[in-house]
């Protein structure tokens, strides 16, 4: 059988009618409410909201009776306020890194891991990959969900998995060549960094067998995707997930690359106005809210992800009926206010990544100048440009500055840097350095 014929992992569920899907969601929402009532946190929270059992949920719309859950709630539940099964039935624990406070904990039963693996398997098949692919998993293993999440799904579909994890660029490149890796799982920033390392070594893109990359774990622009696709001559697919909802496998692009299908038999998807919490209709951008429908050990109801996106109208050419969300344009908490103007880092990235002279790395730097904020956009440009005329560099700097000003309405300082001079991240990139609050 050729790869083209295997276009679904689970055709029945992936192409389910919307009526059947709603029925299934209601059944699973009721089950989830019952499971949630077994946790100390939701038992108190739901009863306060007048929900004493699943019988209080009669229609899907009744989800609006359920209060939202926030990251702070999860933190307050540390370590086991959200555990709904006997610890003997837990086979794995993931926690967030905890850099911004107490870590959040998600427990998984054997069935939870199995369901998660199935979701990831669907994603992989939706991009046209399968048994014949060699999959180099360059996301971190360990508590971070990126590595293990894709690993299990990739094995389930029968790919040959290279579980290398993040870092060690030279070895990564060597393994890609030696094992003829066809599919990468990697952050977009690290993929672009690998390209600059290729330029220094003896192995070139032509010596590799790459076909695809799954890019996720951090926000990036459409222009960054295009850049990655052109530099490596691959197809790059957007992969979105968050540890609270398992990790990767929540939403993924299919071969048509027109938004990410959210597996709606496993998650109820809502988009709300982040300020008023009112529900928003399709095509309106707002905060994504998820409810788990299949999780046994740690159910989460109406979890506010803080990620911003919108839902696409209409169906997809692939015939999957699960709705598609847009690229994540930012997090409600990463919006920068610069001299009173609201700017998302993604807006800046979108502009600089379409400038052909710009290389593979950049940084957004903010500082105080007197009472005003100063935005400095540092971009790496290709080294050959540094051998040219100073006048040309000045003109390039002006051009980038003008394009940024037109897009974000503030006047940045643009600095041009040599390749390899800005900080590199093997996991999630930290693009913004904000020194304004420091004394
Ligand atoms: P955190 O980054 O909050 O410590 P996670 O490791 O669970 O926790 O990462 C999940 C977050 O990563 C998402 O909420 C989202 O902000 C970001 N993310 C993941 N995939 C993507 C993607 N494809 N595009 C943009 N952002 C993403
Ligand atoms: Zn599709």
Describe the protein:
The chain has 439 residues and is α/β, with parallel strands linked by helices. The protein folds into two domains: 11-333, Rossmann fold, CATH 3.40.50.12780; 338-434, ANL, C-terminal domain (GMP Synthetase, Chain A, domain 3), CATH 3.30.300.30. Helix content is 29%, strand content 24%. The chain has eleven helices and 20 strands. Strands 4-3-5-6-7-8-9-13 form an eight-stranded mixed β-sheet. β15 and β16 form a beta hairpin. The radius of gyration is 23 Å and the shape is globular. Bound molecules: adenosine-5'-diphosphate (ADP) and zinc ion. Adenosine-5'-diphosphate binds next to β7 and β12.
What's this, in brief?
The chain has 2 domains: 323 residues, ANL, N-terminal domain (Rossmann fold, 3-Layer(aba) Sandwich), CATH 3.40.50.12780; 97 residues, ANL, C-terminal domain (GMP Synthetase, Chain A, domain 3, 2-Layer Sandwich), CATH 3.30.300.
Largest sheet features: 8 strands, mixed
**Overall number of strands:** 20
> What is the name of the CATH topology of the largest domain?
Rossmann fold
Q: Any guess at the CATH architecture of the largest domain?
A: 3-Layer(aba) Sandwich
How far apart the termini lie comes to 65 Å
Shape: globular
CATH class of the largest domain: Alpha Beta
**In percent terms, what proportion of residues is strand?**
15-25%
| Radius of gyration, in angstroms, nearest whole number | 23 Å
Give the proportion of residues in helices. 25-40%
Small molecules held by this entry: adenosine-5'-diphosphate, zinc ion
Mean pLDDT: 94
Spatial arrangement of strands, main beta sheet:
4-3-5-6-7-8-9-13
Runs in which pLDDT lies below 50 for 5 or more consecutive residues are none
How many domains in all? 2
- Count the DSSP helices: 11
What structural category characterises the helix and strand content? Answer: alpha/beta
What is the CATH homology-level superfamily of the largest domain? ANL, N-terminal domain
């Amino acid at each position: 059988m050729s790869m083209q014929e295997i276009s679904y992992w689970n055709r029945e569920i992936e192409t389910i009618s919307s009526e059947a899907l709603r029925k299934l969601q209601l059944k699973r929402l009721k089950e989830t409410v019952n499971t949630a009532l077994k946790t100390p946190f939701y038992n108190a929270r739901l009863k306060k909201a007048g929900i004493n059992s699943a019988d209080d949920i009669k229609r899907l719309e009744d989800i609006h009776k359920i209060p939202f859950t926030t990251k702070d709630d999860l933190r307050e539940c540390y370590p086991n306020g959200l555990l709904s099964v006997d610890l003997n039935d837990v086979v794995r624990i993931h926690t967030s890194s905890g850099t911004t406070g107490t870590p959040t904990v998600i427990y998984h039963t054997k069935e939870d891991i199995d369901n998660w693996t199935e979701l990831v398997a669907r994603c992989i098949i939706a991009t046209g990959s399968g048994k014949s692919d060699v999959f180099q998993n360059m996301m971190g293993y360990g508590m971070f969900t990126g590595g293990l999440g894709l690993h299990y799904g990739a094995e389930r579909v029968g790919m040959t998995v290279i579980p290398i994890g993040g870092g060690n660029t030279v070895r990564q490149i060597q393994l890609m060549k030696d094992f003829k890796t066809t599919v990468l799982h990697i952050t977009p920033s690290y993929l672009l960094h690998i390209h600059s390392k290729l330029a220094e070594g003896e192995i070139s893109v032509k010596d590799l067998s790459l076909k695809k990359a799954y890019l996720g774990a951090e926000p990036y622009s459409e222009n960054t995707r295009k850049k990655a696709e052109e530099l490596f001559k691959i197809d790059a697919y957007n992969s979105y997930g968050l540890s609270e909802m398992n990790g990767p496998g929540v939403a993924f692009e299919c071969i048509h690359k027109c938004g990410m299908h959210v597996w709606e038999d496993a998650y109820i998807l809502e988009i709300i106005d982040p300020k008023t919490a009112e529900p928003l209709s399709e095509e309106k951008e707002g905060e994504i809210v998820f409810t788990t429908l299949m999780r046994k050990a740690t159910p989460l109801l109406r979890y506010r992800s803080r990620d911003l996106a919108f839902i696409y109208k209409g169906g997809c050419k692939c015939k999957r009926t699960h709705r598609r969300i847009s690229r994540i344009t930012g997090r409600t908490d990463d919006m920068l206010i610069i001299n009173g103007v609201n700017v998302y880092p993604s807006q800046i990235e979108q502009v600089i990544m379409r400038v052909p002279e710009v290389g593979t790395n950049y940084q957004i730097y903010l500082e105080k100048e007197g009472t005003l904020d100063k935005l400095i956009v540092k971009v790496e440009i290709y080294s050959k440009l540094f051998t040219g005329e100073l006048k040309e560099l000045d003109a390039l700097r002006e051009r980038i500055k003008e394009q940024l000003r037109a897009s974000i309405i503030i006047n940045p300082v643009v600095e041009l840097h040599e390749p390899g001079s800005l900080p590199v991240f093997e996991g999630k990139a930290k693009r913004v350095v904000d020194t304004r609050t420091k004394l």
